[in-house]
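seq:
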Amino acid sequence: MRPHSHRLTPLALVLLSALFILPAAARDYVVRGPQGGLAMKVTLPDDFDTARDRCPMVILMHGIFSRKDYVPMPQLARALARTGIASLRFDFDGHGASEGRPEAMTVPNEIADAKAVWDYVQTLPYVSCVGLLGHSQGGVIASMLAGQLAQAGGPVPQCLVLIAPGSVIKEATQGGSFFWQSFDPADPPERLKLFGGFRTLGRDYLLTTQTLDIYGTAAHYRGPVCLIHGTKDTIVPLWCSERYVAAYGSDRATLHLVEGGNHTITRHRRQFIRQAVAFFQTTLVP
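struct:
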C-alpha cells in the first residue's frame, strides 16, 4: 500500500479556506437579534436610486421552519417591486443563513428579531413608510410586533398583512401536540423532535408559547389589516384568522379566502400574492 499523502486536495483547500472565510462573513451582519446576526435581502423596484428616490417598504416574515428564500417570500418581493414597493425579507434566528440554534427559537426571540429589523428599516433614508407581512408563525410575529410598537407609542406600521397567521401554536402547545408529536405540556422535553428528527423545538418554545397573549397584544395596533387564508389549509385552521378579525374589529380588518389554497401556498399562489400586493398598493402607495 502507498502511504497517505499530506498534500491537500482542491476540496480540502476549499473547506480549509471556509474556516477563515465564515467568521469574516458573520461580521457582515448589519442587524442582530438575541441569537446573533440576521441574514437579510432587500428587493428594490427597477431603476430605483437609493440616493435620490423614496418608496414604501414591506418587511416580510416567514413561518416556522421556513426561511426568507422559500415560497412565498421571493415571489412576494418580486411582485411588490413591480408595483414600486421595496421589501426586506430576513431569516429568523436559527433559520436559514442567520445565526443561532434552531432549538433556542421562541416567539419572544423572533419578535425581538423583527423589532431589530424594524429599527434598521427606520434608519433607511429612501424608505417613505413601512408595512408588515407575516406568513404562518411569521403572521403571529408581525401582529404582535405591530401591537407592541403601538403600545410603545412610537412609529407603527402603515398597514399589516397576515397570511394564515399561525396563532394555533398556543392551543397546540397547551394541548401537548405539535405537528402530530405528543408531549407533556406541563413538563415538555428539552428537545421535541418533529418529522422524524428533521426539525426540533426546544423546551423554552413549548413553555413560553402556552402563555402568549397573541390577540390581546395584536389588538393594540389600530391600522388597517388584511388577512388571507386558503380554504384547504390543513395546518392552520381558519378560525385563527377569524379570531384576528374579531380582535381587530371588522372596521379595521378584512378576511379574504383563497378557494382551494393550502398552507404552504403551493396552490393558487398568484391569488395569495395578488391579494396582498393589492392591499399594499392601496395602503402604502400615495
